[in-house]
Q: What sequence folds into this?
């Protein structure tokens, strides 16, 4: 069984998501040296970073997000583009900070797996629904697509087919399944949750009793702070060692860090990884 | 294995920690049935004014002044500023005569035998992490974390420890944190420059846990119940305590709360001393 990570990156004028994917790839190689990662993109991957990727794959079926601000219209294509039989899909704004090879054994019990429990930088389970009012109000499964897994099976394909249909007709489906706290724009998390509801398969695709696979979700309002600021980086400092261990607010980060703020990627972080991996 | 309790008493002219220690030592002997030693800079005062035979050992330390001062409330309407001599706690590892030590603040009033189970535990270091304000009208979140963005809070009020290599490193680390307090207040986002043992112990536990959640320190049995110095200990008889606790939004008014058989951290030291005097004069 081939196993690997797939990441879809489409640059905006203001954000270099390909560069984020490259840093993610470096973080993978720093902690999981024998792992594979492929990038799905129509943008140019800088020469220095190409060797980090197992495959550079063009976005299939044309670019459905040409005129889109959020570029999520192509996300359902990851299923079709992934070269692996078992794929862990990650957002570009993530770093892998520990050996996650043992996750595969857990994940392979599932055909499709989404985490429904994410963590604060202090390692506590996130309990706030500040950013997930739609989920609470409409009783949608609390799925996070930022890090999810699929095996190429009939069931996963059906799930992704529904994701495609909902993405292309999001107003219709959101109007039916997410009318309370209606999201003003499409979201992969909401789309996945609606799909799970339609297929009535929540218990088959998530498990809120396990502490992994999960990720640390660095959105400011869900860190159990009494006085959060709009940017989490205004509340706590980040430290990165020469071995690319990262501390946020003096808490050593492990697992997968979803840093969420593009300004987190500084030259210091990039250079530390480049030096460590000789890239 | 020798075992016992340790109390620290360094008077400051306004608060008589020696008096509190003698009172608490008797209660520890009654409820926990273990010997009690005192670390004090006032040995002569102790011997002249109190029944010092209550102590297993008197460990004398030199008297010194401190630049650390803080306000001590006596209810909601009165306070005094006095010296805050709290810079010896990290040396207890070396000063204690016991292999298994229960270190207590002198204002932690024992009223049951729960803490005696520490000595039968496999855990070599135990402190309270979760706590409950008896008054239930104040923000208890301030004791969840050292500060809003910082690490988990542990109480240094009651500490059980065994002499182990790890605990020696732990106490050395607290000593290092004390000596470099300004630096640690910055990196742990502590607003006040005042050295606090609760904070120093919390930082040391966090470091010993590898800067993550961990199990280096285990919770003490029971729950850390406390009244702040804005409350008043009104009556203390055997295992019963009557408090007047601050009433929210009614300055100077209080609600009466009675506890039976509960260990309570009585932070209003003035009212505690008044009660000790009354009990002693009965």
A:
């Amino acid at each position: 069984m081939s196993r690997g990570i797939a990441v879809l990156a489409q640059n905006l004028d203001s954000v270099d998501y390909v560069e984020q994917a490259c840093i993610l790839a470096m973080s993978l190689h720093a902690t999981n040296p024998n792992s594979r990662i492929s990038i799905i993109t129509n943008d140019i991957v800088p020469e220095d970073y190409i060797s980090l990727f197992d495959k550079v794959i063009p976005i299939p079926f044309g670019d459905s997000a040409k005129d889109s601000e959020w570029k999520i219209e192509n996300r359902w294509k990851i299923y079709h583009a992934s070269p692996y039989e078992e794929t862990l899909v990650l957002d570009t704004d993530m770093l892998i900070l520990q050996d996650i090879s043992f996750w595969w054994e857990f994940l392979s019990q599932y055909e499709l797996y989404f985490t429904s429990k994410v963590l604060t930088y202090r390692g506590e389970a996130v309990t706030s629904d500040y950013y997930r009012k739609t989920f609470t109000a409409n009783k949608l499964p609390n799925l996070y697509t930022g890090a999810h897994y699929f095996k190429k099976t009939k069931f996963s394909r059906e799930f992704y087919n529904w994701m495609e249909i909902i993405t292309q007709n999001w107003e219709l489906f959101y109007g039916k399944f997410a009318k309370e706290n209606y999201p003003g724009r499409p979201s992969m998390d909401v789309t996945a949750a609606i799909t799970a509801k339609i297929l009535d398969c929540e218990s088959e695709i998530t498990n809120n009793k396990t502490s992994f696979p999960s990720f640390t979700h660095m959105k400011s309002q869900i860190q159990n702070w009494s006085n959060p600021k709009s940017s989490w980086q205004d509340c706590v400092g980040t430290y990165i060692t020469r071995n690319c261990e990262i501390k946020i607010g003096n808490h050593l980060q492990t697992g997968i860090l979803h840093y969420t703020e593009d300004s987190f990627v500084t030259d210091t972080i990039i250079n530390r990884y480049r030096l460590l991996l000789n890239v | 294995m020798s075992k016992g309790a340790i109390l620290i008493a360094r008077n400051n002219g306004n608060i008589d920690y020696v008096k509190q220690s003698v009172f608490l030592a008797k209660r520890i002997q009654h409820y926990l049935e273990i010997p009690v030693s005192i670390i004090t800079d006032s040995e002569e005062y102790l011997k002249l004014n109190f029944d010092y035979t209550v102590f297993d050992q008197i460990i004398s330390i030199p008297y010194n002044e401190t630049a650390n001062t803080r306000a001590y409330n006596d209810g909601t309407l009165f306070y005094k500023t006095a010296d805050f001599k709290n810079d010896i706690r990290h040396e207890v590892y070396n000063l204690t005569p016991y292999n298994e030590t229960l270190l207590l603040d002198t204002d932690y009033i024992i009223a049951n035998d729960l803490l005696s189970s520490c000595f039968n535990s496999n855990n070599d270091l135990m402190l309270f992490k979760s706590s409950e304000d008896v008054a239930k009208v104040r923000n208890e979140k301030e004791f969840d974390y050292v500060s809003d963005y910082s690490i988990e809070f542990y109480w240094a009020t009651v500490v059980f420890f065994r002499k182990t290599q790890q605990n020696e490193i732990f106490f050395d680390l607290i000593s290092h944190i004390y000596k470099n307090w300004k630096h640690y207040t910055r990196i742990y986002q502590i607003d006040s420059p005042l050295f606090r043992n609760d904070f120093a112990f919390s930082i040391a536990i966090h470091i010993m846990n590898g800067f993550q959640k961990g199990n280096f320190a285990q919770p003490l049995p029971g729950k850390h119940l406390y009244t702040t110095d804005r409350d008043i200990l009104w009556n203390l008889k055997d295992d019963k305590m009557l408090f007047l606790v601050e009433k929210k939004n009614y300055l100077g008014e209080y609600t009466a709360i009675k506890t039976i058989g509960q260990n309570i951290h009585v932070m209003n030291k003035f009212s505690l001393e008044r009660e000790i005097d009354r009990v002693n004069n009965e």
Residues 3-277 of chain A form a domain with the Spore Coat Polysaccharide Biosynthesis Protein SpsA; Chain A fold (CATH 3.90.550).
